[in-house]
Amino acid sequence: MHFSINRQNFIKSLNAVSRAISSRTTIPILTNIKIEVSDTQLTLTGSNADISIQTRILDSDTTAELIIKETGGITLPATFFSNIIKRLPADTFELKLEGLRAAITSGASSFTINGQDIQNYPQLPEVEDAESLSVSAAQLTDIISQTIISASTQESRPILTGVHFQLTGDSVKSVTTDSHRLSQRIVTLTGADAQVNADVIVPAKSFKELGAMLEGQDRVVIKLTANQAVFDLGNTTFYSRLLEGNYPETDRLIPTESTTELMINAMTLLGAIDRAALLSHESRNNVVQLTMKDNTAVLSGMSQEIGQVKEALDAKKVEGDDLEISFNPDYVRDALRVFHDKEVELQFTSNLRPFTITPAGETDNKQLQLITPVRTF
């Protein structure tokens, strides 16, 4: 293998595949990056067994300045190789194999790195017969950002660390819950070129990494198999294993009626909770309290050691029964951020039952956040 390439262009691809590489792996070769060169392209692959990312640089891409002199492949220590490339002095660099050693030159600088045979690197999953459809990258970003916040980070219930992703024709439903909160987003796909029915659980960590790669993309082709989800972003392909098992039935957790309602701008409420959390974070239970009485709403937080805060909320509407409810401010802050500057409705049934946050006027639960209150007595 022997090639030369524009360094900055190569670094973009290197950064993309590096998202899949972890130093904590039981398969030592997966701490390496796989580099392959064919007659027409250079391919980089990174994997941690759960996710794999492969990106291609074509010799027809003039910005890459890729000149292929000899085909071949090798795997090189990812962190060390990446640090070298990012610090080379010239705009281009050249890489040439000498057995299982890679000689890298750029300007007056030269390195030699020991590598391993690509035959020892695990093969990527085969997905030729998978069902596939093309979706808007913007819609996929919307789905991911609004639901991964409620996925569990505790491995005691692995199924809850995933995103329940259901495709029905041209509609997708995405749900997460960690048993303390729930996020749901239902979207009708625009420009979908196929009707696919699928019910899978994608690890939230995979979706988080995928979401970071969607900026600047127009369309994404999704391919689903029995144990893999594959997202084709043009010259980059993202592979994720799927979680096995049955996701809990979450529809029954969503209240169908309410006794108290609060309408307020999401950013206004977020700001008030930020201030209340300054004190709640200093207390042992990290709780803030919302009191709704006589068509007014007051948010309060307290720390025995520091003091307390009270703030009358600038609400658009407070209706229904009087209510005093306590909750974890961090959960509600995460939920409010997905609504940006929209007016939202908080609907309550009692101080011990979960409450919902939805866009004002929306009644179909297509964009919903659900929070379980904290018992303080």
Automatic annotation (TrEMBL):
Residue ranges of every copy of the DNA polymerase III beta sliding clamp central domain listed in the record: 135-249
Swiss-Prot/TrEMBL keywords: Cytoplasm, DNA replication, DNA-binding, DNA-directed DNA polymerase, Nucleotidyltransferase, Transferase
GO molecular function: 3'-5' exonuclease activity; DNA binding; DNA-directed DNA polymerase activity
A Gene Ontology cellular-component term: DNA polymerase III complex
Signal peptide location: none
Compartments, record wording: Cytoplasm
CDD domains listed in its UniProt record: beta_clamp
Domain DNA polymerase III beta sliding clamp N-terminal: 1-125
Bilayer-crossing regions: none
UniProt keyword DNA-binding, yes or no: yes
GO biological process, one term: DNA strand elongation involved in DNA replication
Family assignment from sequence similarity: Belongs to the beta sliding clamp family.
Protein name as it appears in the record: Beta sliding clamp
Lineage: Bacteria, Bacillati, Bacillota, Bacilli, Lactobacillales
